[in-house]
Write a structure and sequence with these properties.
- The chain has 132 residues and is an all-alpha fold.
- The N and C termini lie far apart (59 Å).
- The radius of gyration is 25 Å and the shape is elongated.
- Helices cover 83% and strands 0% of the residues.
- It folds into two domains: 32 residues; 95 residues, no CATH class.
- Helix 3 packs antiparallel against helix 4.
- It has six helices and no strands.
């Protein structure tokens, strides 16, 4: 019995020192840093502008319109990311904010695209469904 207790004590000590609790704790803390979250936000904004660029090729637009659309999409992606960080985007209490922001974006896009707005939105929706 004494040998069994001694064996488990040594085994437990070996396992605790071999795993290195300091290394494991550092690895768990890294994904929660703000740098990682900023990277995700930047990737999301970049993917939004990339989607806008790919859909503009489906809808025939001139370079000026493409540049304006990319600027509008990037601007609203930043604003939405900011509101999400402040927890002012999701939920019923923020529905007015979402509707107002989306209405502004729609108004700006319609001003740039004119009659091509519906085609642009349809191509964007098709691009989103293909990604999923």
């Amino acid at each position: 019995m004494r040998n069994l207790i001694l064996f488990f004590t040594i085994a437990l000590f070996t396992m605790l020192t071999a795993c290195g609790p300091e290394k494991g704790a550092a690895k768990k803390a890294n994904p929660k840093t703000t740098q990682t979250n900023k990277g995700k936000a930047n990737k999301k904004a970049a993917s939004t502008t990339a989607a806008a660029t790919s859909t503009t090729t489906k809808v025939k637009l001139n370079n000026d319109q493409k540049a304006k659309i990319e600027k509008i999409e990037a601007n609203y992606a930043k604003r939405i990311t900011y509101l999400r960080k402040k927890n002012e985007w999701a939920g019923e209490k923020n529905a007015k904010t979402r509707k107002a922001l989306n209405a502004e974006k729609t108004k700006e896009l319609k001003a740039v695209l004119g009659g091509k707005y519906k085609d642009y939105i349809m191509s964007q929706m098709q691009a989103k469904t293909k990604k999923k």
